[in-house]
Amino acid sequence: MMQNGGVLTLRRMGAGDLGLVETWLRDPEVARWYLVASTVEAELDDLRQCIGGAEQTEALIAADSSGPIGWCQWYLCDDYPDHAAGVGADPGDAGIDYAIGEPASRGRGVGTALIGALVTYISQRHPQAGVIADPEASNVASRRVLEKNRFQLRGERPVVSEPTSAPMAIYRLPPRPGVLDLPPVLVVVAPRRRAAGTGVGGGPAC
Ligand SMILES: CC(C)(COP(=O)(O)OP(=O)(O)OC[C@H]1O[C@@H](n2cnc3c(N)ncnc32)[C@H](O)[C@@H]1OP(=O)(O)O)[C@@H](O)C(=O)NCCC(=O)NCCS
Fold first, then answer.
1. How far is the CA of 149 from the centre of ligand 1 (A)?
2. What dihedral angle (degrees, nearest 10) is formed by the CA atoms of 140, 45, 73, 193?
3. Does the C-beta of 103 come closer than 6 Å to ligand 1?
4. Ligand 1 contact via 27 beta carbon (within 6 Å)
5. What is the Å distance from ligand 1's center to 110 Cα?
6. Which atom of ligand 1 sits closest to the CA of residue 70?
7. CA spacing 20 to 30 A to 20: which of 39, 119, 155, 176?
């Protein structure tokens, strides 16, 4: 549970959020994991494509009572076959990426709540979907928030579709159709606009 007992909301990311996301990407703790083989500009460009519907990934902003605190995204692994093969996704699985951008919000349970909210959001749309995440194996905080949400470790190894040869810790939360044990968060998201995208590239890296 978030330590302030607060409510976490998720809403679709818009172009007006990119300035804030840029600030977050430049934070050393975020850059350390997000910019391993990428740049701020490349990440923002990817997000622009998600926002515009050219990519099949949906980007969301997470906010608590203090305002926006981070972002996350999800996609169907089937839309990114190389990444699906790389992480060994089952058909229909979803993949996720996430970051708490506000330094003061880290280490207070917000990331754990964010994963819970995102899983709920995906389950409501794809009840049969398992959820895959593959943080770098050395990203202990990222692994913990998955484990605290009952993700199961499938293996640790490099993933060819990721921009680094470092070992990734591949986690999967099995589908739990009909079980929507809503976390202590409120999930509020605008309707999805889903254009006919190309699904180019591998699954977005985190
Ligand atoms: C990873 C991240 C989402 C976690 O969110 P958070 O709000 O900080 O996490 P929480 O407070 O919910 O929980 C963090 C857990 O990791 C542990 N942890 C945090 N930093 C740690 C570290 N350096 N070493 C070991 N454990 C650590 C905490 O103790 C806690 O586990 P516990 O409750 O069992 O003690 C957030 O820190 C973040 O966005 N970091 C930068 C970007 C990033 O790494 N994104 C993920 C890329 S895959």
1. 13
2. 180
3. no
4. no
5. 9
6. 39
7. 119
Beta strands in the chain (DSSP E): 9-12, 58-64, 67-76, 94-100, 131-133, 152-157, 168-173
Q: List the structure tokens of 100.
A: 């708490």
User: pLDDT in tens for each of the 206 residues of the chain?
Assistant: 565 557 899 999 999 999 999 999 999 999 999 999 899 999 999 999 999 999 999 999 999 999 999 999 999 999 999 999 999 999 999 999 999 999 999 999 999 999 999 999 999 999 999 999 999 999 999 999 999 999 999 999 999 999 899 999 999 999 986 655 555 445 444 444 444 333 333 344 44
Domains belonging to the chain, first-starting first, are: 9-181 (3.40.630.30)
Q: Are 84 and 166 in contact (CB under 8 A)?
A: no
